[in-house]
């Protein structure tokens, strides 16, 4: 009986064995294909990085080789520097360096891209490069040469020894393994050398200076966790702070120091109220009260009015709605500071309102808090009628007002703001109030244009 059973079962077992072997082989082949594809992508990104850094060094040299008064040549060179730096940043993001300390090099490239872009869009006939800026470009030329040399050295080792980036990924992912890898060592050396560079004068729009500038906007003393609890309770209209959970953020980075507050709401953790406060001064940056909003009983105009009252109650004075829209029964209203009939767009607050009960369930006030500066708002040198000549004659203007915006150099400029319709599209156009040149053009939705029209009246 067993012999007969084995004769019957043997073909099925053989077929199953063959099937399992084929399946395993195909899985192995598919895995190898994925690994090979990933390795090829890593290799391409790495060699592109080496190429772009080499070209960047060359372009900086070419830019410095011409006279600083030769505006077209300098502008072209700076645009190329910005483009190549941005490409190098893109190459780095494609490499498995997440777990490798490489932030100093990334910050250096980000500052270089920001610096070259700001220089390239500037009117050099009125603001020629200063000696300090030329010195910074010369330092960038020297530093880029050193970075290029180090990356080329890593590239030579990769090609000579057939090193694989997949091994780098595995080495970085292994917490217990000693990182004895030529690629890891090479990039670590690059980052250490960049970190040792003397601090460059990146100008007023640099990332580091902007962070310090943000901190200088704040007033008051550093808060404690208990003081933050009291502020949260006051904002929410509560008296009991026992259940509140407070976490301090930022460590030793002044620009990131804040407190996060969680206020439990019932038994469902997903409904907890979340708030962020600055450590200095204890100003509210963020507030969110998540909940399901299943229907809309009120419209956007009513939500805007409730938001206005809410901001007044919490000492956000002189705010004007500049746009509002609706998503999943929640209204999002954006307000900007209004001073002397001028809309100050860099100082904004976003308010979320549930359209079932008109309850304010969200607030984002970071731009408002860090935008509190003393502004000397004067009168534009050109009239609205003169500025209007810069618009297309085919545009039907529906609203006009004065506004302060940030230009491409991260500078605040006073502009004539026009809202108009052309080719079945709505636009918001900003014309520089002193120079009469176009600063920015935005395509906007009809509800945003309505808000802009109401703001101007």
Description:
- The chain is an alpha+beta fold and 457 residues long.
- The protein folds into 3 domains: 18-203; 225-370, no CATH class; 384-456, Nuclear Transport Factor 2, Chain: A (Roll), CATH 3.10.450.
- It has helices at 2-65, 71-93, 103-120, 131-161, 165-173, 182-195, 207-216, 225-236, 300-313, 366-370, 384-388, 446-456; strands at residues 245-249, 258-263, 273-278, 284-288, 319-327, 330-339, 342-354, 359-364, 396-406, 412-422, 425-432, 438-444.
- Strands 1, 2, 3, 4, 5, 6, 7, 8, 9, 10, 11 and 12 form a 12-stranded mixed beta sheet that branches.
- Strand 10 (412-422) and strand 11 form a beta hairpin.
- Helix 3 packs across helix 6 (182-195).
- The relative contact order is 0.06.
Q: How would you briefly describe this protein structure?
A:
This protein has 457 residues and is α+β, with helices and mostly antiparallel strands. Helices cover 47% and strands 21% of the residues. Residues 206-213 have low confidence and may be disordered.
What spatial form do the alpha-carbon principal axes imply?
globular
What count of domains describes the coordinates? 3
Rg of Cα set? 29 Å
| Count of alpha and pi helical runs | 12
- Judged by helices, strands and strand pairing, the structural class is alpha+beta
- DSSP strand tally: 12
Strand proportion:
15-25%
Which stretches are low in confidence, meaning pLDDT under 50 for 5 or more residues running?
A: 206-213
Q: Can you give the mean pLDDT?
A: 80
Order of helices and strands: HHHHHHHHEEEEHEEEEHHEEEEH
Fraction of helical residues:
40-55%
Largest sheet: 12 strands, mixed
How far is the first residue's CA from the last residue's CA? 99 Å
């Amino acid at each position: 009986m067993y012999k007969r059973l084995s004769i019957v079962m043997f073909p099925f077992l053989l077929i199953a064995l063959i099937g399992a072997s084929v399946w395993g082989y195909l899985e192995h082949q598919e895995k190898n294909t994925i690994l090979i594809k990933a390795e090829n992508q890593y290799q391409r990104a790495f060699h592109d990085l080496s190429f772009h850094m080499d070209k960047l060094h060359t372009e900086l040299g070419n830019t410095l080789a011409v006279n600083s008064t030769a505006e077209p040549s300098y502008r072209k060179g700076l645009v190329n520097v910005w483009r190549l730096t941005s490409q190098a940043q893109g190459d780095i993001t494609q490499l498995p360096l997440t777990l490798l300390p490489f932030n100093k090099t990334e910050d250096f490239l980000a500052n270089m891209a920001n610096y070259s872009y700001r220089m390239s869009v500037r009117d050099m006939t009125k603001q020629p490069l200063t000696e300090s800026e030329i010195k910074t470009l010369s330092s960038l030329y020297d530093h880029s040469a050193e970075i290029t040399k180090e990356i080329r050295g890593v590239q030579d080792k990769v090609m000579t020894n057939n090193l694989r980036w997949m091994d780098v990924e595995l080495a970085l992912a292994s917490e217990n393994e000693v990182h004895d890898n030529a690629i890891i060592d090479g990039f670590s050396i690059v980052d250490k050398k960049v970190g040792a560079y003397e601090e460059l004068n990146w100008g007023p729009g640099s990332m580091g200076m902007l962070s310090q500038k943000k901190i200088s906007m704040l007033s008051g003393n550093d808060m404690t966790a208990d003081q933050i609890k009291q502020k949260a309770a006051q904002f929410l209209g509560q008296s009991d702070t026992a259940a509140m959970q407070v976490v301090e953020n930022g460590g030793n980075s002044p620009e990131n120091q804040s407190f996060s507050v969680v206020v439990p709401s019932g038994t469902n953790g997903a409904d907890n109220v979340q708030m962020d406060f600055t450590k200095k001064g204890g100003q509210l940056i963020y507030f969110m009260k998540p909940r399901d909003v299943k229907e809309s009983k009120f419209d956007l105009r009513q939500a805007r009015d409730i938001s206005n009252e809410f901001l007044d109650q919490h000492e956000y004075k002189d705010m004007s709605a500049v746009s509002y829209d609706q998503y999943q029964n929640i209204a999002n209203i954006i307000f900007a500071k209004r001073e002397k009939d001028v809309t100050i767009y860099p100082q904004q607050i976003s308010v979320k309102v549930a359209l079932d009960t008109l309850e304010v369930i969200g607030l984002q006030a970071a731009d408002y808090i860090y935008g509190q500066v003393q502004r000397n708002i004067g009168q534009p040198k050109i009239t609205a009628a003169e500025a209007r000549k810069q618009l297309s004659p085919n545009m039907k203007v529906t609203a006009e007002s004065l506004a302060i915006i940030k230009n491409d150099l991260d500078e605040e400029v006073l502009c004539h703001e026009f809202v108009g319709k052309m080719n079945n599209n709505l636009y918001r156009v900003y014309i520089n109030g002193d120079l009469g040149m176009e600063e920015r053009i935005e395509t906007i939705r009809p509800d945003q244009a309505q808000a802009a029209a109401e703001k101007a009246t």
